[in-house]
Amino acid sequence: MAAAGPSVFLLMVNGQVESAQFPEYDDLYCKYCFVYGQDWAPTAGLEEGISQITSKSQDVRQALVWNFPIDVTFKSTNPYGWPQIVLSVYGPDVFGNDVVRGYGAVHVPFSPGRTSVCENICFRHKRTIPMFVPESTSKLQKFTSWFMGRRPEYTDPKVVAQGEGREVTRVRSQGFVTLLFNVVTKDMRKLGYDTGPPDTQGVLGPSPPPGLPR
Amino acid sequence: MNPKEEKMKIITEEFIENDEDADVGRQKKTSKVQRQKRKKQLLTAGPQEMVSEKAHLGSRQEPGQQDLDTDTRLLSMPTRRGPRSLPPIPSASRTGFAEFSMRERMREKLQAARSKAESALLQEVPTPRPRRLRSPSEKEVETEFGTEPSREIQRTQQEDDSQSYSRVKFRDSVRKSKSKPPVPPGFPSAEEAYNFFTFNFDPEPEESEEKTKAKNRDGAHQEEEEGEEEEPRVQEGVNKTDEEELDGKDAMDFLLGLDRGAEDTVAVRPADYESVHVRLQMEKELLFIPSRRTVPMYKKLPENAQPRFLEDEGLYIGARPEVPCTNQNIMENRLLTQDPGRGWFGDDGRILALPNPIKPFPSRPPVLTQEQDIKTELETLYKKAVKYVYSSQHMIGYGDPPGSFQLDIDISGLIFTHHPCFSREHVLAAKLAQLYDQYLARRQRNKAKFLTDKLHALRNAVQMSLNPAKTPKSLNTTRKAINEYKSEIRQTRKLRDTEQEKDRTLLKTIIKVWKEMKSLREFQRFTNTPLKLVLRKEKVDQKADEEAYEAEIQAEISELLEEHREEYDQRMDGYRSAHQQWKAWKKAQRAKKKRKKQAVEEHSNEEMEEPYPGEDPVKPVPPEPTDRAVIERQVRERAAQSRRRPGEPMLVPELSLAGSVTPNDQCPRVEVSRREDVKRRSVYLKVLFNDKEVSRTDSRPLGADFRVHFGQIFNLQIFNWPESLTLQVYETVGHSGTTLLAEVFLPVPETTIVTGRAPLEEIEFSSNQHVTLDHEGVGSGVPFSFEADGSNQLILMTSGKVSNSVSWATGENGIPLIPPLSQQNIGFRSALKRADAISSIGTSGLTDMKKLAKWAAESKLDPNDPNNAPLMQLILVATSGESYVPDFFRLEQLQQEFNFVSDEELNRSRRFRLLCLRSQEVPEFRNYKQIPVYDREIMEKVFQDYEKRLQDRNVIETKDHIDTHRATVAKYLQQVRESVINRFLIAKHHFLLADLIVEEEVPNISILGLRLFKLAEQKRPLRPRRKGRKKVTAQNLSDGDIKLLVNIIRAYDIPVRKPTASKFQQPSRSSRNFSEKHAASPTTHSPTHSADYPLGQVLVRPFVEVSFQRTICHTTTAEGPNPSWNEELELPFRAPNGDYSTTSLQSVKDDVFINIFDEVLYDVLEDDRERGSGIHTRIERHWLGCVKIPFSTIYFQAKIDGTFKIDIPPVLLGYSKERSVIVERGFDSVRSLSEGSYITLFITMEPQLVPGESVREKFDSQEDEKLLQATEKFQAECALKFPNRQCLTTVIDLSGKTVFITRYLKPLNPPQELLSAYPNNPQATAELVARYVSLIPFLPDTVSFAGLCDLWSTSDQFLDLLAGDEEEHAVLLCNYFLSLGKKAWLVMGNAIPEGPTAYVLTREQSHYLIWNPCSGHFYGQFDTFCPLKSVGCLIGPDNIWFNIQRYDSPLRINFDVTKPKLWKSFFSRSLPYPGLSSVQPEELVYQRTDKTAAAELQDRIEKILKEKIMDWRPRHLTRWNRYCTSTLRHFLPLLERSQGEDVEDNHRAELLKQLGDYRFSGFPLHMPYSELKPLIEAVYSTGVHNIDVPNVEFALAVYIHPYPKNVLSVWIYVASLIRNR
């Protein structure tokens, strides 16, 4: 069996949910989970996690820093359904009810590489994902949901990792969450999937909005 | 008052400055003050004051005092400054002037001051006068002393408004005390400046300005304007206040002292100020403000480039968008400074701009206000469809989008080479122009030169080849080559000579025509055309020229000589041979003559004749040798004729339009009228495509030069291959008609010509129009002459040239929009000659390089001909470069590249197939996880099931189903299911907001109120209630996540053991019941039996075992017939295939079996002696009964809570129901009314799953639209009142159509067999019918049809399918009851455990009965054990009644539907019952079930079950007691007949009789037959096989009782026997 070559490839992801920018909110915590296709299976590590509550930093950046580690390993036979990390951020509202402050999702980086902090501070797999929440269907709903602390939520946070059915929703942007990934793959190339040589200096991912901590 | 004095006064007025208003109302006060002053001043001023006072009064109203004599002012001002320079008084200025501009304020102040000062002036007149000429430096001292009085007055005047009279005084005193040396004037000290800001001035805006001005200006040049007069005053005022402060002793001191204190502590610095200029300067450095001036052209263009106006060159330029000139300039300036490159500017020096995108007219149709207009506008007209038949050759393939091809026709202009309005001069001019064009063309080609060069080259070649040293080749070839060269030289020379001659004649003609023209102009004394011919002489080097000329001639001569010599030689040869011949002939002749001479006399006549007809007796003349001189003469003659003489300058004609045209007023009348006529004419062109007019140009006036400029490009969107392109030239004369002048046929462009590459071509046209004109115009088709005598007549026809270009447009991505080549018809061209490349191989051939090369080879193109050069180049490149041009067109020509595997191979790939099937959500593969990477790892058997299913779609499989009928039914069900599934698969991917987002609903008042009420609620109530748990969507769950929680609380009325009434009554040791052990003696079954048991003796030790998906849990053992366990059992749940989606969960068919067992302990002690020392017992368990709850029920109900009747077999050997005990035990006496045992359960799932939503799909219907609306309305109303009550009006039938529910109810005949069973007992018949219905297997719709879609089948379908859920059963039962003559309704409500379900309600004589159609049981209305817990609505055959009573429990409601207050009926008086036809069949036809088949099935089931039991006991031997089995088999039909009642005793007795020496435990199971699997499950759940007593024997009997229509009642008797020893 082993001589015949690998029959699965492995993807090890670790990193952290580094920080967030939610200009209007404080005392937030976040949950993450992975969404992956049918051909994927987690082999080690935690597939989901819930972070501590963090408060805004007192400086001008007002960053919400979690530094919440992610460490999970998947095996798969098929790159289709590549894992996505789904983040949902929660925090108390005016009345102290825990309400959702944002959902967001991003694919785990395809190419292996680690987060490097060099002089120029370039992050290979630094992802800044915009977070959004579903909007209420009407003004009245909005008011009552605000009043009662029961904001509209996704039935399942994993919805944000899929495209189906999203057309019926309206969302509003809330903030950003920055994630760092280190990715190790095994046997991908042996199975014919070439995710490309690691780019030596390019900064991948969406460029973070101005004013974010780098 | 003398004028001087007046002036004086005015001046003083000027200088008296106040912040006060000139208020007349204040005059009183003023005068008062003045009076006081006067008193004081009297001392000094004396009588003068009186005069002044008067004068003041008199001059008060004097206007226009402002215009002052500047001289005096200048003089007097410095002196006056002092008094006026008081700080403005806050209160006064604040009120009036804050918003006034400074100038205005000044003026007003001046006026006010003037009026007030006038009085004072009188007093002061003497004082100011001497001071006039004082210098500014002295003024301060002066002021201090000299102006004291006047100052005082002014001061008081100023302070009038401040209402502080005392202050005036104080100030006066201050002033008096002030005699200190003043602060140096002119400059304000730092203190002053500080004070200026800190002193509580009124924050007037102008103050700071004043201050700045004061700073800026020194005392030297102070007052130049009126407005500036105040400045020094302010300055002084500051000084004053300073002085006041320094005083320190005054009452004011404390006020000012504050300032002083501040002054001490704070470091004071003058405020920074940047002057406007400085600021502007800085701004200029920082900011860039593009100028608005026009940018000079040279800046915008590259160096030394002239602006190029494309429009003038005839190119089309769209209208630029309109931008204001200044903006454009600003932009240009900015661009030039910021971006030094000139990329923004076009050739014409303007900013590049796209044409104006704004259409001149709106593209939307105008909105019409009047309605009738709209109607007329929008009225549609019927036009019969006309089928347009395309001729196939023009039709572009159907696949191509029409109009995707575009032909651009650029019509640049039109030039008439002749026009009727031409004057004679025009004719000549046209001729001249034509000749000149010809000349230019010739010169460009310069054929003569080319030929000359060629000649030279050839001559050289000849020279070279003649040189023997350099020709190693054989002499033969050299000679041959030389000969060839020579002949070529000859030809070339001839050609050259003709060309040269032509050139020369052309030049001559040009000159001649020009001369004619000149003479004509002179003759007619006016000029019509600006044409002017200039002959430029090009000097040539005479000597070189002559030499060249001579050399040329010599060469020619020598060549000619050679030629002649050759010719001569040739001729000489010819001559010689001829001469020889002749000589021979001569000889012969002579011989003849000799002979003849002999016979001369005889043949004299003949002789005479002979020489004449003789062949050639002529003596050949020897050719003359060529004479060089003659040749030379000839050559020179020719050269003189055709060539430029040596030394003669080269004449280069240049035609220009530089000449001036004689203006109209200097022309004769006829000419003027001609010109008028020309002006009236205008020309336009029509563009005809395939003989259809497609567009036309604008009408343009004919210019005086008979040129018309159009400059229009027509984009023809075409989809036919162009057959012809025609331009029609139309001329309009004035306002009369238009005449077609001529037609111009344009050639269809080659496919290689695309827009941008097409050159402008001139195409000539002419018309045969005859026009005679009455003016100077020569007309057309009319003879005219230039000569005065009318000779040498000319007839000219109207003709001209259209300059145009036709090309194919290119699409957006550069693809030319040309119809495919295949569309062209090339055939007709083949007939043409092949000399021309285009005509021989067709235009399309030009793109085919191979063809072209072939043609070039065939036609021996001269590769050196410069005309052919580009062609040859092209061919060379094309043929060498291996460029392969495919002869077909492919849309995605690169697709092949990307096909890395062929399609067959791709299809063969198992992995690919698996992936495809999974993505198609084929059920077998929907949840296939981890599809292997390699094909080889995918086993072929993966697909086997799927393939088999596909194959078996139409093949009925009988293996799994014992009975063929069931098999067909199953197949049919499967098909219905598939179609439904396919339908729902689509709906599944259709999401609603609620599917994705959880959102609280907007609370209404009641909920809000409730919430408010809740706020006041206790946080931890004493009696907590169950709260709803959060529901979990099932999709992200996995194995082990879901648990089934079964809470077993208690049971009632469990059967109790009964001592075995065997023949051998004496209890043997070993077989003694453990519990009975303690009993004194076993007794027979008797009512007194309980008495035998002492207190607390256990009659039964029941425990509950829950089995679900083969997982078994059991409770502890309780004691007694009414045990209470209160235990929670947790069972894991596994979804099929690990698919936890809603649809999958819905279709879980598993049941939860809750079995009640009795734990029996048997003493297994072999030896009595050991009894004292140890206890050896064996635990046996005896099945007592079970409750079966389908998982789907739990799934949809979320929780099941209630007391259920235990399904106890009709015969339970060894047990009996001890009713008395229960009564004695004091349990609820009501319960004892109904027989049977009960168990209280609570079942739920953890976590709670969200049941699938019903499919949101509107089904089509055949119902009346009105009815449907009414149903919706009814349902909405009901839902509003009682949202929890079920209200059903329409249902969906098997074909997916909405049907009104009452259509399902109709009396239907039950099987005759059942009716005849109890002819006299209607109640028994009803029960039998209900039993029959209950025997039809139950299959929930959710299981059969994935998704929560309740499909109702009609009764015949139901009977055919032999499967259905509550509704079908209920409908059938209701229909049977109706046919039995009962009053029956369908009850829609909630029951346990089913949830929303359908029951049947019948009305007996006095009471109502509620029938459970699935079990066949019936309950009275007030039966507490009735599983029906709430009633939503009743449905009859003709109406629906919704329960609007307060309660919905059947116990508490009134079933009288006639009461409208209790029941809301659907059909009422407002909506009467329309008489809906039923969907049910007229009559049900029952086939008698094949008994033999049933018997066969019975045997098979028995066999299978036996095998199963043996399988379940792998470690033990399973013995079958045949005797017992046969006994049981005989007994089962009895059970069926009696429906399991009242047979127990007989049966027991019989059993005992036969199996006396066996301890027997067993029971019959009764089930409807649907499939084998439930039977096996049921047997398994009893746990009979679990007995592991070594000598156990089993008995199993199956009986199937066939009812009509293949309804089978299955009885399974399972028993275990242990032989008593």
Q: Strands, helices and their partners?
A:
The complex is a heterodimer of chains A (214) and B (1621).
Chain A: E1 9-21, E2 29-35, E3 40-45, E4 48-50, E5 64-76, E6 84-92, E7 98-107, E8 126-134, H1 139-148, E9 153-154, E10 171-186
Chain B: H1 3-15, H2 27-45, H3 48-58, H4 70-84, H5 90-96, H6 102-124, H7 128-131, H8 139-146, H9 148-158, H10 165-177, H11 190-198, H12 205-216, H13 230-247, H14 253-265, H15 276-286, H16 297-300, H17 325-338, H18 371-378, E1 405-418, H19 424-445, H20 447-466, H21 475-524, E2 532-538, H22 542-598, H23 604-609, H24 628-642, E3 650-656, H25 669-680, E4 681-689, E5 692-696, E6 700-701, E7 707-718, E8 725-733, E9 738-746, E10 761-766, E11 783-785, E12 793-795, E13 799-808, H26 837-845, H27 849-858, H28 869-880, H29 895-898, H30 903-908, H31 910-919, H32 944-951, H33 964-988, H34 993-996, E14 997-998, H35 1005-1015, E15 1043-1052, E16 1056-1057, H36 1089-1092, E17 1102-1108, E18 1111-1114, E19 1124-1132, H37 1142-1146, E20 1151-1163, E21 1177-1190, H38 1191-1197, E22 1199-1205, E23 1215-1216, H39 1219-1225, E24 1238-1246, H40 1265-1281, E25 1290-1293, E26 1298-1300, H41 1312-1317, H42 1322-1334, H43 1341-1344, E27 1351-1352, H44 1355-1361, H45 1366-1379, E28 1383-1391, E29 1395-1403, E30 1408-1411, E31 1418-1420, E32 1428-1435, E33 1440-1443, E34 1463-1465, H46 1491-1512, ...
Parallel strand pairs in B: 25-27, 35-37
Antiparallel strand pairs in B: 1-7, 1-13, 2-3, 4-5, 4-6, 4-8, 8-9, 10-13, 11-12, 15-19, 15-24, 16-23, 17-18, 17-20, 20-21, 22-24, 25-26, 28-29, 28-32, 29-30, 30-31, 32-33, 33-34, 36-38, 37-38
Helix pairs in contact in B: 1-4, 1-6, 2-6, 2-9, 3-6, 4-8, 4-13, 6-9, 9-10, 11-13, 12-13, 19-21, 20-21, 22-24, 26-27, 27-28, 42-45, 46-49
